[in-house]
Amino acid sequence: MMSNRGLDRRGFVTLLFVGTLVPIAGHAEGRLITDCRGRSVSVGSASRIACIGGTITETLYQLGVSERIVAVDTTSTWPKEALKERKSLGYMRAISSEGVLSVRPDLILAMNASGPADAMDQLVASGIPVVFVDSTSSPDAILKRTRFLAKAVGREQAGEEMCRDIQAHFDALEQWRATHSGTPRVLFVMRMTNNRPLVAGQGTAADAVIRLAGGINVGANLQGYKLLNTESLVTLRPDIILTMSQGGAEIRQALLSDPGFSMTPAGQKKAIVEMEGERLLGFGPRTPEAALDLAHMMVNAGKPV
Q1: What is the rounded average pLDDT for all residues in the chain?
Q2: How does DSSP assign 169-221, residue by residue?
Q3: Is the pTM of this model over 0.85?
Q4: Within-domain flag for 49
């Protein structure tokens, strides 16, 4: 077992062994990157990149460096070929350092929320450049993240072109919202736990995307993700329930079977909408289009098909 935020003897030996497989000489002569944790990291050729976070993978594909990616995590659902053609590292919050090092990366790009912490510490200790990427959920953060990743892989011009395209889609979203004044009350349900919904409060990507699409997050008085009982669900009176398409059918069935949910405006209209999780919550290059699609979905939620 690993000691808390450290390495045991076996893990340390493993890292040393795997680390010898990766040519790290010359890193000091590469681009110097300051990551979101304030660490200065020297990035070399970055010809074997391990991506931990779907937003990173999606951005690198659009930057035109997909051939340099050797492994991705399971949140890398877009483009679809990423998980089919690259080695899977597992879920971004349950990463194995040995699994990452086994693909012999010369650069590890990880969303700041990646974990567990011990595994991230082991990767940093391996000597391979590890760059942590800010995971803030906002339009400005998307543009900054795109430029940051473009610099990390030496594709600054492509990054600027991407940012212009992203901004144009944000402008289109803003124009649409300017002509549609409705502000539906939305509740995002991550999953059901013992027939209770786990819902999004403030400080979550779900809260940010609901507001971006022109809705009101009725869970905004909560912090992070919280389980609700029936009385709380009724009190919040959501007009619309938002879920990810992954697990969406199970959530829909559970809610429609709940007598309390039927007392809410969303329950009375059966207004439940869903979207693929990474597209909805990833806050990557597709976010402005996803938010506009969500805005359209909210307008039509509960209406006869």
Answers
A1: 91
A2: HHHHHHHHHHT-----EEEEEEEEETTEEEEE-BTSHHHHHHHHTT-EETTTT
A3: yes
A4: yes
